[in-house]
UniProtKB/TrEMBL annotation:
<keyword id="KW-0479">Metal-binding</keyword>
<dbReference type="InterPro" id="IPR008380">
    <property type="entry name" value="HAD-SF_hydro_IG_5-nucl"/>
</dbReference>
<dbReference type="InterPro" id="IPR036412">
    <property type="entry name" value="HAD-like_sf"/>
</dbReference>
<dbReference type="Pfam" id="PF05761">
    <property type="entry name" value="5_nucleotid"/>
</dbReference>
<dbReference type="InterPro" id="IPR023214">
    <property type="entry name" value="HAD_sf"/>
</dbReference>
<dbReference type="InterPro" id="IPR016695">
    <property type="entry name" value="Pur_nucleotidase"/>
</dbReference>
<dbReference type="GO" id="GO:0046872">
    <property type="term" value="F:metal ion binding"/>
</dbReference>
<protein>
    <submittedName>
        <fullName>HAD-superfamily hydrolase, subfamily IG, 5'-nucleotidase</fullName>
    </submittedName>
</protein>
<keyword id="KW-0378">Hydrolase</keyword>
<feature type="active site" description="Nucleophile">
    <location>
        <position position="103"/>
    </location>
</feature>
<dbReference type="GO" id="GO:0008253">
    <property type="term" value="F:5'-nucleotidase activity"/>
</dbReference>
<feature type="binding site">
    <location>
        <position position="386"/>
    </location>
    <ligand>
        <name>Mg(2+)</name>
    </ligand>
</feature>
<feature type="binding site">
    <location>
        <position position="105"/>
    </location>
    <ligand>
        <name>GMP</name>
    </ligand>
</feature>
<keyword id="KW-0460">Magnesium</keyword>
<feature type="binding site">
    <location>
        <position position="103"/>
    </location>
    <ligand>
        <name>Mg(2+)</name>
    </ligand>
</feature>
<comment type="similarity">
    <text>Belongs to the 5'(3')-deoxyribonucleotidase family.</text>
</comment>
<feature type="active site" description="Proton donor">
    <location>
        <position position="105"/>
    </location>
</feature>
């Protein structure tokens, strides 16, 4: 925006970047001389700044490299974040909570890494047998070191992407098939690292507990077509893989596979029973709400808790209401009625459900009728796992962030990042040559080393789930920040807090409260 004001013989041009004054009465030769004098003074000032600042940056960099030879004692003494802590995005008073609800998968039930391999294998077999994909797909093997939760798949371009908090592509987190794309290739495909609104419409978010096997299978199928030099539509591959993943779940193949060998897939947990009993003793109401069928939930709960329960004691006695096949997320918006499920006959009753009995199992339903029947008030209810983003596992990432080796690399990265910022603020692109270029290359190389070391501590392909390689929060972290009031690695972590605790958002929060300040 420009404003023009006349003041005597001088014309003043005012713009947001500052004020430039021209003497309207001076001759052109005088103006030229003044201009050259101004430029000479500016060059002298720039040279003085370069002469003072660049040697300081070089000295600080050399000093820092010497300090990088061992982990400083100060880092070792830094406080650790609790891997089993409860992390707060919005203040929560537990003494106001009277009703505790739980999902089943990855909330009450925790699975071993073998589950993703089972889903992957069943899905690829379905693609070959039913969707007529090449039989060579049967040779594919699930790679648990490749995917992380929170990736995005571009249905138009066929790339797997890791995005940061602001929707930009992570420079080392873009794969086409199993090949990592360079920054130049990312720019050629997308024009910029930032995903625009139109491009975002082509992205699908891989967030649920199928996402590991789904991301790996998508990448493997894309790579197969590339290797065989076959034309393909990236959208069709997503649709077919997603169909296969959903089919093996909804058909019961995954459920039957888990129950056929529960020791291989399920993790026993006596602390879960302790937590549920503690809530009952405090007079809290408990309910279980899951998309899984009852026979699957019953088999899993009996396996996980039977050795900790007393004689003739049933896990169902812990819950006031048990709802299976809830059809989330439509459960939250639909008007579906509840149906009473007959365990012995394996069918649904036709009588209207207008009350929940503790010895009965219910199917389907919706949130509106749930609240009408129970008379529970929304603010007094907390539900673990009501959103795909809530099925979390933050414990492992916090443990890694607590390690001295990680914090050492993190400190190195931020030191180099600060020096690079000062370098670019001092030296123009046209001035980068000779000793300046050498310093810039050394700084970039040292930063890249620290970034790589931090990344591979989490996942060699995509790094951390909650962080980008530059230490910014990821798009997955953004979703947790938006949708979860509190988050933790497992429900029984609440045992570490008094039932009347008031959980506060930390005063020094960055974005995610579990990240090191």
């Amino acid at each position: 925006m420009f404003q023009f004001n006349v003041f005597g013989e001088a014309k003043i041009i005012v713009k947001k970047s500052g004020i430039r004054e021209y003497n309207a009465g001076a001759s052109s030769s005088e103006q030229t001389a003044l201009k050259f004098e101004d430029e000479d003074r500016q060059l002298d000032a720039n040279s003085l700044t370069l002469g003072l600042e660049i040697p300081k940056i070089r000295k600080e960099f050399d000093d820092a490299k010497r300090s990088f030879l061992k982990i400083p004692e100060a880092l070792k003494g830094m406080p650790k974040m609790n891997p089993e802590g409860i992390y707060v995005n919005k203040n929560l008073r537990l003494d106001n909570i009277q009703v505790y609800g739980f999902d089943y998968d990855y909330t009450l039930a925790h699975y071993t890494a073998n589950l993703q391999c089972l889903i992957y294998n069943l899905a690829k077999e379905h693609m070959v047998n039913e969707l007529r994909y090449p039989e060579s797909l049967l040779q594919f093997k699930y790679d648990q070191e490749f995917p992380i939760r929170g990736l995005y798949y571009d249905k138009q371009k066929g790339c797997l992407l890791k995005l940061d908090f602001f929707g930009s592509i992570e420079p080392d987190g873009c794969y086409f098939g199993r090949r990592k794309l360079s920054r130049k290739e990312i720019e050629e495909i997308y024009g910029t690292r930032h995903i625009g609104r139109d491009q975002a419409r082509q992205l699908v978010c891989l967030m649920d507990f199928f996402c590991f096997s789904e991301a790996c299978l998508i990448a493997d199928v894309v790579q197969h077509f590339v290797d065989e030099k076959l034309e393909f539509d990236a959208c069709y591959i997503y649709q077919d893989v997603n169909h296969a993943i959903q089919y093996v779940h909804r058909s019961g193949l995954v459920h039957r596979g888990i129950l056929s060998d529960p020791d291989r897939y399920l993790m026993k947990n006596d602390q879960l029973l302790h937590f549920l009993r503690m809530l009952k003793e405090k007079g809290k109401k408990l309910f279980l709400l899951t998309n899984s069928p009852y026979y699957f939930v019953d088999g899993g709960m009996r396996f996980m808790l039977e050795e900790y329960l007393g004689y003739k004691e049933s896990w169902r006695e812990l819950f006031d209401v048990v709802i299976a096949k809830a059809n989330k997320p439509s459960f939250y918006t639909s008007d579906h009625p509840f149906r009473c499920y007959d365990i012995q006959k394996d069918n649904l009753a036709f009588t209207k459900v207008d009350s929940f009995l503790p010895d009965k199992i219910y199917y389907h339903g919706c949130l509106k009728y749930f609240l009408q029947i129970t008379k529970w008030n929304g603010p007094e209810v907390i539900y673990f796992g009501d959103h795909l983003f809530s099925d979390l596992r933050v414990q492992n990432e916090i443990k890694i962030q607590n390690e001295d080796t990680y914090r050492f690399e993190q400190a190195k990265f931020h030191i180099i990042q600060e020096l690079l910022g000062r370098f670019h603020a001092t030296v123009a692109n046209s001035q980068i040559s000779g000793a300046y270029r050498s310093l810039l290359e050394e700084l970039n190389e040292e930063r890249q080393k620290a970034r790589y070391m931090m990344k591979k501590m989490f996942n060699r392909s995509f790094g951390a789930t909650f962080l980008t390689d530059t230490g910014q929060e990821s798009a997955f972290a953004y979703n947790i920040h938006q949708y979860a009031d509190v988050y933790t690695s497992k429900p029984e972590n609440f045992l570490l807090y008094p039932p009347e605790a008031w959980l506060h958002v930390p005063f020094d929060i960055k974005i995610m409260p579990h990240h090191v300040k």
